[in-house]
Amino acid sequence: MQKRTFLSMLVAGAVSVPLSSHAAWAPSGEVSVIVAYKAGSGTDVGARLLASEAEKFVGRPLVVNNVPGADGKIGWTQLSRAKPDGRTIGFINLPTFTTLAVLPHSPLSTSKIVPICNHLKETGVVVVRADSKWKTLKDLVAEAKKNPNLRASTNGVKASNHIAAQLLARSAGFNYKAIPYGGTADQLLALRQGEVQFSCAKIGDVLKLSTGRSPVFRILGVFDTKRDPSLKNVPTLKELGYYGKWYGSARALVAPAGTPPEIINFYVNAFRRTLTDKANIAAHERAGLSIDFLDNKQLAALIKEQEEFSREVTKIF
């Protein structure tokens, strides 16, 4: 009798169901993934690979939306202003995002985003064309000391690869001319076409173009304290007596500020499953991409660390 009474009350709406008994949050439609660089860029390639692999764990299509321009500021501003309902997430690049965020009057701020997870960690490298007369980084540095008009392409003013060029130049004691482009893809095209003499990028951006029978680029140095397994014959900047620490970029997923915790938790778990999936790991290895999963709390600590680094590194420009 009591059971019938309870059911009748439930149907009539007189009994409220506790929130804990509700189904867990999941997106109700396709998810927009904002990439602040053009299609074909390093960030875009990694984002599309992750989006395709994550769909089975998210349960809805993840659609990469390229919003390039202003060294990433346009896309990241759009991301931070999106409705915090879980239907829009996006990639940020560290330290580019934090470096731009600490500049005066910047539209960007770490307070306008919520961490989800880190996707990739990419080590910086110094590259020239494969047919360049400079066979070693020592050769390039010696030339740069004699000729301060050497040109280096960057992925934007004070963006990650510009910072790398500055770290190299300052530690090696030479001057050069930095030529900004809209992103890594355009930056490397400029090097390929001979518009500049050298560049700094990430291993994943240039590895495939620096090996094989007809390489396009030659990698002269790695921003690390030990040699990379995929580049055993390429010295680190540290062993050459230049910049003595690891430097590179992290590519991470975030949501607009105000996104509820249950939505963030859903994505953390979905991407954790994706980035530990054997098929996905193999797909990343084939693409030359190094997975470095960090959950939302670990990513929050990394963003804070990178913000402090950015405040210091802006002093070298």
TrEMBL record:
Name of the featured protein: Recombinase RecA
SUPFAM superfamilies membership: Periplasmic binding protein-like II (SSF53850)
Keyword tags: Signal
Domain of life: Bacteria
Residues in the signal sequence: 1-23
Family listed: Belongs to the UPF0065 (bug) family.
